[in-house]
Design goal:
Blueprint: H1 7-15, E1 32-34, E2 40-42, E3 50-53, E4 58-62, E5 65-69, E6 79-83, E7 93-94, E8 101-103, H2 108-116, E9 121-122, E10 128-129, E11 134-135, E12 144-145, H3 151-162, H4 164-175, H5 183-195, H6 198-207, H7 212-224, H8 245-250, H9 252-274, H10 278-283, H11 285-294, H12 300-327, E13 329-334, E14 339-344, H13 358-380, H14 384-392, H15 398-408, H16 427-441, H17 444-465, H18 474-503, H19 508-518, H20 520-535
Antiparallel strand pairs: 1-2, 3-4, 4-8, 5-6, 6-13, 7-8, 9-10, 11-12, 13-14
Helix pairs in contact: 4-12, 5-16, 5-18, 5-20, 6-7, 9-12, 12-13, 12-15, 12-16, 13-16, 16-17, 17-18, 18-19
Length: about 575
């Protein structure tokens, strides 16, 4: 299923076009010009992007591209072409070369309305919202809406939809000391994050709009989006904020950083509680009361560190794909193939690194740079020389070691005479980074086969190294099966995509195969849930209403009123 061509490929395509004969077009339909032979010929030499029927004057454009007016302030008949999200599979199909072509309207005004109208968009390649319309602040398709609710109501709705569910999720992770960095969760969460990437769901929703398949993908997005901190994003009603498309995309930074900031804040409170600050002790008294009745032993520092490691993985993916979305660009050409400029993919009214893009670009590049350090640190940390370097600068504190143990404690470390495999923990953040960037800047026909080859290489590494410790060896086999299910999904999806692109039909086999394999993580989580219930992690506390130790410490022991809290 085509998303868009890489910008570099579009540049090469445009630059290789032969010069046009600017002949009189008085008697030919729009988009056509009269050739030297006297025929009305397609007015563009964008081979494989635009196709023309010289007899009927019908023009078609490849479904992953858009043709719109350049700017209302310039010549209204001046048209531009570029890869475009908002026109995916919208319009009437027409015959063309290899691929699905969408019929172009007879004139530019009708073409703009045909392409952008259903999304309430306008401007160059549908990059901007119509007057008094706003991009929904918490959705996948970036459609523009006219909302009746006031600004305060919409802000409250956004906070309720985007921040309340992560807060409850974080509370459960901390209270029940759940570590999602353990081998049983490691890969399956990565698969869920990949399947629910907004960059892919936006395209899928465009292609399957109004069909049963779209309902299925919304179901998958609702279930798996939890691991991208996108709770119910596919089904939340429109929320209008006075922000443009890029600013709405940048809002994902807030939901990605929020749980991490909340954990840091809570850790500061616990530290103050440990030092016996009475206002903080009184503030946390209800938490202690709940902890005493739900857990026999609640090691709050360990819980917070494990939770921080968990949300590092969940937020890492969101930070990376948001940064890539803010940077991905396209090369726009006019109808004759001449270069117009570099503009952003999600908002083609904004020039790449222009004044309105520069602040967001700086943030995005900075976030990606910091994100690259995380897998690098995981690779270097097991090395003795790196450990000595950290010790020299007093950076290898017990807290840092505990934090790194969350990621690398399950891997072999030569104590059993085997390979040093702790660096293997960097594979999963690296895959998150690759998955976020690769799909955003490449064509699907390139991404999926090459990504499948990369997965085969990872499987070979697991088979050869068996990276997990002996007590977790079963998860070496589980991960191999999960990786194979991902390759099976890619095969089914490619069958569906190629058939849809070439013949405008959706083969049942491709849908069934990809549907079965995309549900593999759900089946795996059901098994884990059954195991979790069997293990009964929720235990009664030591307190009762008759024995009400209101000053229990977080570790579950009564406090001496004359001493500080010992966590």
């Amino acid at each position: 299923m085509r998303k868009h061509l890489p910008s570099l490929l579009t540049v090469i395509l445009a630059s290789s076009l032969p010069p046009l004969c600017y002949c009189s077009n008085e008697t030919c339909p729009t988009w056509l010009y009269r050739s030297e032979e006297g025929w009305c010929t397609c007015g563009s030499h964008l081979v494989n992007v635009i196709t023309c029927n010289n007899e009927t004057g019908e023009v078609g454009i490849l479904s992953s591209f858009c043709l719109t007016s350049f700017d209302s302030s310039r010549d209204p008949t001046e048209a531009v072409v570029g890869s475009c999200l908002y026109g995916q599979n919208h319009g009437t199909a027409t015959e063309g070369g290899a691929g699905l072509y969408v019929r172009v309207a007879p004139n530019i005004t009708e073409q703009d309305e045909q392409l952008c109208g259903y999304l309430n968009r306008e401007g160059r390649l549908c990059g901007a919202c119509k007057s008094e319309h706003y991009v929904s602040a918490y959705s996948y398709d970036l459609k523009c809406y006219r909302c009746s609710t006031g600004l305060v109501g919409n802000i409250f709705a956004y906070l309720l939809a985007a921040l309340l569910p992560p807060t409850l999720f974080l509370a459960a992770v901390v209270l029940f000391h759940i570590s999602f960095t353990s081998p049983r969760y490691n890969l399956v969460i990565l698969l869920c994050q990949t399947y629910s990437l907004p960059v892919s769901l936006r395209v899928l929703r465009q292609y399957t709009r109004g069909t049963t398949v779209m309902i299925f993908f919304d179901f998958i997005a609702t279930l798996y989006g939890v691991w991208n901190l996108d709770f119910f994003r596919a089904i939340v009603p429109p929320i209008c904020l006075p922000l443009n498309t890029l600013q709405v995309i940048a809002l994902d930074y807030l939901s990605a950083a929020y749980p991490l900031l909340l954990l840091v804040f809570f850790y500061v409170l616990v530290t103050a509680h440990d030092k016996g600050y009475r206002p903080v002790v009184r503030l946390l008294k209800p938490c202690l009361w709940c902890a005493a009745r739900t857990r026999r032993q609640w090691h709050i520092r360990s819980s917070i560190i494990d939770a921080f490691a968990t949300f590092i993985l969940l937020s890492y993916m969101k930070f990376m794909y948001t940064s890539v979305d803010l940077l991905v660009f396209e090369h726009i050409v006019d109808i004759h193939g001449s270069r117009v400029g570099l503009f952003l993919y999600y908002d083609s009214t904004v020039e790449l690194f222009g004044p309105s893009h520069r602040p967001l670009a700086i943030i995005a590049v900075t976030v990606i740079g910091i994100g690259l350090l995380f897998p690098l640190f995981l690779v270097l940390y097991p090395m003795k020389r790196f450990q000595r370097l950290l010790n020299r600068f007093h950076l290898n504190s017990p807290g840092v070691r505990t934090f790194m143990e969350c990621f690398q404690g399950n891997y072999r470390d030569r104590t059993d005479g085997g390979w040093e495999c702790r660096y293997f923990s960097a594979v999963y953040p690296l895959l998150r980074l690759i998955g976020s960037g690769w799909y955003a800047v490449c064509h699907d026909d390139i991404v999926f086969p090459t990504f499948a080859l990369f997965l085969i290489a990872v499987i070979a590494g697991i088979v050869t190294l068996r990276p997990y410790k002996k007590q977790y060896d079963i998860y070496n086999n589980v991960e191999i099966l999960l990786w194979l299910s991902a390759i099976g999904f890619i095969a089914g999806f490619m069958t569906y995509a190629l058939s849809f692109d070439r013949y405008n039909t959706a083969p049942v086999a491709g849908i069934v195969i990809s549907g079965i394999f995309i549900l593999t993580p759900l089946a795996y989580f059901i098994v884990l849930l059954c195991v979790w219930i069997k293990e009964s992690p929720l235990k009664l506390g030591v307190c009762t209403d008759k024995s009400d130790y209101e000053d229990l410490s977080f570790s579950g022991h009564p406090l001496d009123s004359s001493s500080s809290v010992n966590l």
